Amino acid sequence: MSDAAALPEPDRTEGAPHPRDAARLFGHDAAEAAFLDAYNAGRLHHGWLIAGPNGVGKATLAWRIARFLLAQPGGDPHTVGGMFAPDPPTTLDVPATDPAHALVAAGAHPGLLVIRRGYDPKRKRLRAVITVDETRRLHRFFGTHATEGGWRVVIVDAADEMNVNAANALLKALEEPPARALLLLVAHRPSALLPTIRSRCRMLPLAPLDPADMAGALAQAGFDPGRDAAAVAALSGGSVGAAVRLMAEDGVALYAELNAVLGAAPRIDRARLLKLARDNAGRDGDGRFELLARLLELWLVRLARTGVTGPPAPEAATGEAETLARLAPDTHAARAWAEAAATLLPRVRQGRALNLDPAGLVLDTGLKIEAVARGILRQSA
Question: Cα separation of 182 and 19, whole Å?
Fold first, then answer.
């Protein structure tokens, strides 16, 4: 394995296979059909924006499209061969025996360029954004001749991680693409892209997965949530990536403890809250603290929604429905919790950015939740 291959990959969920290795894409038949229809009709747009929440399969679709195009023979399939031309493809599947399949899997296909956040050797970590140095590789890539008249494909993952200079460099490629070149932009937040980039791409929106497709995608990635299946589905929001992280980090158990501790408001057990803070917010446990912060945000969102629509189903923890219904009995409570979330969550993020004691942040947040709950229950009494 080369040194480059050993570097961390920003487009991989830790503990799960890379999207290029996925044999199937679950839940997005309509998006695949839309691309195939355009291909078979000879109206393939040069830029495609694959948009949707984190972890729902956007990168997997991008790699499937890239592998499919790179496996096609040279020449225009709509004008070559006449009546002897092969039937139009009905799937993006590429046989494992196809040379393009092995080359793409090895990251060695000359017709494929992947643009993503690079590695900073000085700081020994991935960069926070895609820099202009990454997107400048487009000029060299498009300056080469496609092998035997084949396609050249670019995957940008994630496009909304580009800084301004990188985005402007990509825009030039979208404005004047070479023949038989296609750019696939993966975006978690398409609104963060330049309007001029969005206007030059055809959108392929991907929605969160339903429980059946989630189960299939998790099985393909080698995960079985078992008895936690309902909780994982509820907490992941239809995102396979989120589900994998939850299972890898024991997030279901952490959410259950979070619900039990904070759900006792306005009589929170201070010792139990302190233990929750110390166990999951140590200075050397940034990853664990980030998970705790995400689950806290989700708990507050589910709490606020309960006041409007009733307790969520299915429960994400035993007794969650009863807890949320008690703390958010009406729309007044829903507004109070929504306002609390809008205040508390930025304070947690800002405090962490300022390197404040994470355990102290958790404790302070718990006490403020206790105060909000006291006010709500006093008014509804």
Answer: 19
Query: What stretches of 7-115 show up as alpha helix (H) in DSSP?
Result: 29-40, 58-70, 99-105
Q: What percent of the chain has pLDDT over 70?
A: 92
Domain ranges of the chain: 3-205, 249-380
Query: What's the pLDDT score for residue 99?
Result: 94
Q: Is the CB of residue 376 less than 8 Å from the CB of residue 332?
A: yes
Flag whether the pTM goes above 0.90.
no
Cα end-to-end distance, the chain, whole Å: 66
**Domain 3-205 = CATH 3.10.350.10:** no
Q: Looking at the predicted structure, is the pLDDT value of residue 305 above 60?
A: yes
Residue ranges in the chain assigned as alpha helix (H): 3-6, 29-40, 58-70, 99-105, 132-135, 137-143, 164-175, 195-199, 211-220, 229-236, 240-248, 251-262, 270-280, 286-309, 320-327, 331-353, 358-380
Q: pLDDT per residue over 86-102, tens digit each?
A: 788 999 999 999 999 99
Tokens of residue 12, six digits: 């991989």
